[in-house]
Amino acid sequence: MVNMPDDLPSLPGTNPAPQPPVNAGAAGGRPPGPPSVPALPQAHQFNKSATTAPQAVLPAQPAAPGLPGWAIALIALGGCFLMIPVVAIMAAMLLPALAAAKRKAEFITSSNNLKEIGIAFRIWEGNHNDQYPFNVSQAQGGVKELCRTDANGFEENPAAVFMVMSNELSTFTPRILVCPNDPTKQMATNFAHLTAGNISYGLRTGPDVNDSHPDAVLVVDPFNGLVLHCDGTVQKDIIDIHTQ
Predict the structure, then answer these.
(1) What is the mean pLDDT of residues 191-220?
(2) CA 167, CA 51: separation in Å to the nearest integer?
(3) CB 222 within 8 A of CB 243
(4) pLDDT one-digit tens code per residue, 2-25
(5) Cβ-Cβ contacts under 8 Å for 228 (sequence gap 6 or more)
(6) Which residues contact 16 (CB under 8 A, 6 or more apart)?
(7) CB count in 10 Å sphere of residue 124
(8) Torsion angle (degrees, nearest 10) of CA 112, 117, 122, 126
(9) Cβ neighbours of residue 112 under 8 Å, at least 6 residues apart?
């Protein structure tokens, strides 16, 4: 390799290539840093205040026409007071209908109770020569000696009659002896603890109350005016338990 001298003259018509300045840091073995950016002239510096347009101030909008707040509150309060009589009228219309539906349901329940009691009587008499318990002696499984018929033909000790029929009534519960319209009577826990306080219906007893007289009255519901006949039918027939 031939070393060319540095002071050779340049050829005619050519300009010598400019030599980059020597970085002083390179002499010390460090890589040259990025070239410095010359500062812009004062006239070319960014002037925020000169280039930013002033912000326009919107004019205040007039308030929308309407009622003041106190007037709106007064109207709302008046609407609430207006709804009170409307609700009262609707309740007055609905309550009688609800009461009638309740009475109908209680009537149906009591009618079913009498039918179930009639079934129990017919099952019991089928095993005791077609006689009801109050006409059969205790020696034969009845309660004739325990029965006391009042002047109106109603049994004064109905609990004894229903207790001796507990097997026939076991399919049901003592609830069938309590009318849903009778607030004075409570359902017995079982037939062994049955008392007159657990029976709402009036039981008619006597030698003429049997299956041979199908139209004879057997059980009376004084609250709904229902009557159970010896043939097992239940009819609407008002009978006063205290005067009949």
Answers:
(1) 93
(2) 109
(3) no
(4) 454 455 454 444 455 555 554 444
(5) 114, 115, 117, 118, 217, 218, 219, 220, 221, 234
(6) 10
(7) 21
(8) 140
(9) 176
CA 97 to CA 109: how far, in whole Å?
18
Residue with tokens 């199908």: 214
Token pair for residue 73? 């509150």
Q: Which of 172, 173, 180, 176 shows the shortest CA–CA distance to 105?
A: 180
Residues of the chain with pLDDT > 90: what percent? 48
Sheet holding 202-203, edge to edge: 202-203, 217-221, 226-229, 234-236
**pLDDT of res. 98:** 82
**Three-state DSSP class for 222?**
coil
Of all helices (H) and strands (E), which one includes residue 79? helix 69-126
CA distance 111 to 105: 10
The gap from C-alpha 217 to its chain's centroid, in whole angstroms, comes to: 44
Which residues does residue 217 pair with via DSSP β-bridges, in sequence order?
A: 229
- Number of helices (H) and strands (E), helices first, in the chain? 5, 4
Sort residue 146 into left (φ over 0), alpha (ψ -120 to 50) or beta: alpha
Tokens of 154: 């109603």
Q: Residues near 67 by Cβ (< 8 Å), separated by ≥ 6?
A: 75
Lookup: tokens for 42: 């004062």
pTM over 0.90: no
Asked if residue 202 lies in contact with residue 160, where contact means CB atoms within 8 angstroms, the answer is no
